Amino acid sequence: MMLFFFYELFIIFFTESRGETISTRQSINLFLGFKVGKILLSLLFIGIYISVINAELKKFLGVFILMYLIFLLFDTFYLATREKAIKKKNQQYKLKEIEKLSNYFKK
Questions:
Q1: Average pLDDT for residues 29-44, to the nearest whole number?
Q2: Which long-range contacts (CB under 8 A, 24 or more apart) does 62-66 make?
Q3: CA 73/CA 2 separation, integer angstroms
Q4: Which one, 4, 52, 64, 107, has least CB within 10 Å?
Q5: What is the dihedral angle through the alpha carbons of 29, 11, 19, 88, rounded to the nearest 10 degrees?
Q6: Concatenated DSSP letters of the chain
Q7: Which residues contact 79 (CB under 8 A, 6 or more apart)?
Q8: Quick check: 20 and 90 in contact, CB under 8 A?
Q9: 9-27 confidence digits (pLDDT tens)
């Protein structure tokens, strides 16, 4: 399941490097695109496994689906905490701007 691990690391590093330059909507679209890519990569891996090994297929699919769901939970948690941090940062920025404007008009 190193496939999922490296794919998730790539997603985290890519989104963190672009975190300041993209909007929340673009971030969500990017994550959804990565999820589609993950599904396609998983299906490709399953297809290769079936065609090459073809042994104990039910056990393999059970473990594979379990690992997929575990990494899906990790992705969901990561996305939720990242979006909360972005919203908090945006809210703090807006409060500072409002404070600047109120100080400007008090003069």
A1: 85
A2: 64/1
A3: 17
A4: 107
A5: 80
A6: -HHHHHHHHHHHHHHHHSTTTS-HHHHHHHHHHHHHHHHHHHHHHHHHHHHHT-SSHHHHHHHHHHHHHHHHHHHHHHHHHHHHHHHHHHHHHHHHHHHHHHHHHH-
A7: 28, 31
A8: no
A9: 887 787 777 766 667 677 7
